[in-house]
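Bumping with the actual sequence this time:
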Amino acid sequence: MITQTHSLVEQLSSGFNTFFINSQLADRQKAAFSFFEENGFPHKKMEDWQYLPLAGLLSLPYEMLPKSNYDQLNLTDYYVPFDNAEVLVFVNGYFQAQLSTVQNMRDISSWKDNDFQNNPYFQQYWGKFAEAEKDGFVAANLAFAQDGAFIALPDNTQENTRIYLLHLYDNSIGNFNQQHNLIVLGENTHSEIIEAHYNISNQHICLSNVVNEIFVEKNAHCNYYKLQDLQSNSSQINSTNFYQKAHSYCNSYTLSLNGKLLRNNLNITLSEEGAEHHLMGFYFPNEKQLFDNHTTVNHAAPNCFSNEIYKGFAADKATAIFNGKIWVEKYAQKTNAFQSNKNILLNDGAQIFTKPQLEIFADDVKCSHGCTIGQLDAEAMFYLQSRGIGETTAQAMLMASFAAEVFENMDNKDLYDFFLQKVYRKLHYTPETLEV
């Protein structure tokens, strides 16, 4: 067990040779560790991290836990309406086979427990996209990843495959954990994947460092959902990377509702002609929570399409951050790229920072971006109250309607209802129906 010495950087640096080096990944892990040793974690002097108080978080006393087995755990508390799904359960970054229900262990399981390191997909893709990010958290993950999911759907898997990645955190001991999930969707496959983060307990500080690599081959379709509903002592750095081939189609939905500090890096590369991605996100920090969403869409080929809608509230003394970049490379002609970020401040003590960016090196494109920060519509509030609706309920109704746009195009109606219900609970709003 590695315990805290002076800082998390020192803890990791001193433990690299004794913690874990996978023989099949040794070269990649050593290269990542060298980058981490030289650069450490990001800090506030870096533009993309300037609003995050990481120094305090990274100086707290953590332990890296040895593998723990949970023979029994009531998973009904972490239910999502995702019938006929392959369920992979991780606790503090480690796969829990006895809690998971996976029928096809050959293609869907833990990469560590099932010795997937010799799999050609694993050898080809693990760390390939993430390492290009040159980020201290990603480098630490590549060097120290404890475990994670490995999903490789064969070409022409036409039946819609549903996968539930359930990440649970036991904070009975303060811990820093890292998991690395690799998903390869073969040509002409159809899949739905939900990644959910919950706590089992909340006694001590927990920091999770999650990296997802998702490779989407030609003509593959993927709906990807992320739910972060952590408790007050849990923070997370989450880097999700999509790499799409020709005529692939993806929707990604991110719902950030609870946690001490949440940082989401969503990086999309449209690498071949005709690829398409829709990015939808909603965040709602309150009290003293801090939620930071950074998105990058790289149009690296012609005739690709991206559409991004991110919305958020900030209440009490919370902080919300959005930074969205669209990058259009020189040869990515006929690009269509759109981005919208809308925010509502619910009181004077909250803060919202937003920064949309366009960098275009092609000359035949349609691109737009925009952002707003405002308050609830006073006229709409007056209208509802004049119809006999109380102020608190009127406010919640407007907020619920504002959030609903993010999820309205979900193909999965059960998940749409579920996500909205999650938002309603945080709003303390109970509509008679889900129609807003």
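The tokens above came from a reply further down the thread. The two ends are 51 Å apart (CA to CA).
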